[in-house]
């Protein structure tokens, strides 16, 4: 299973409008890989990623100045919902909460800090033995035992599950 973090999802959703040719090519490849793996139920996001994606759009709607911008953002909101409709959204479990507390304590005891939401996303990947797809490798490297793939690595995987 592959668990996508929020930034990876945003990049895939925005694939068509990215300006950097390399970033765009990676995002398009990742989107195609995601479609194939989603059909096999091998793609998931955390409920935290779901919430962060929706918050990101709603925040932009609140900040929008013109009606046209607001309409475009509502289209984006439905695009996010459509994106999420084909992906398993992982809900919190008691096991996740216990592992989260243990990982946060471990990280803090090493005098390091991690965003609490990032830690929870990492724990959901760990408890399900999933790969976390992220380009935020510095943040997630603080979580011992976590298997990560960059978006570029994810776009190039073969048929492993």
Automatic annotation (TrEMBL):
Record keywords, A-Z: Hydrolase, Magnesium, Metal-binding, Nuclease, Toxin-antitoxin system
Family: Belongs to the PINc/VapC protein family.
One Pfam family hit: PIN
Domain PIN: 30-145
Protein name (Swiss-Prot/TrEMBL): DNA binding domain-containing protein
Signal peptide from the UniProt entry: none
SUPFAM superfamilies associated with the record: PIN domain-like (SSF88723)
Gene Ontology molecular-function annotations: hydrolase activity; metal ion binding; nuclease activity
């Amino acid at each position: 299973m592959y668990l996508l973090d929020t930034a990876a999802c945003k990049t895939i959703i925005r694939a068509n409008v990215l300006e950097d040719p390399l970033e765009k090519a990676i995002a398009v490849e990742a989107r195609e890989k995601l479609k194939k793996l989603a059909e096999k139920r091998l793609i998931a996001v955390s409920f935290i990623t779901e919430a962060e994606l929706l918050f990101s759009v709603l925040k932009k709607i609140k900040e929008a100045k013109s009606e046209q911008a607001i309409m475009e953002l509502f289209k984006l909101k439905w695009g996010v919902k459509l994106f999420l409709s084909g992906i398993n959204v992982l809900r919190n479990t008691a096991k996740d909460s216990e592992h989260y507390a243990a990982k946060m304590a471990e990280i803090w005891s090493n005098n390091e800090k991690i965003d609490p939401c990032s830690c929870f996303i990492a724990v959901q990947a760990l408890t399900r033995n999933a790969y976390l797809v992220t380009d935020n490798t510095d943040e997630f490297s603080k979580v011992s035992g976590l298997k990560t793939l960059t978006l570029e690595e994810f776009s190039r995987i073969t048929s492993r599950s």
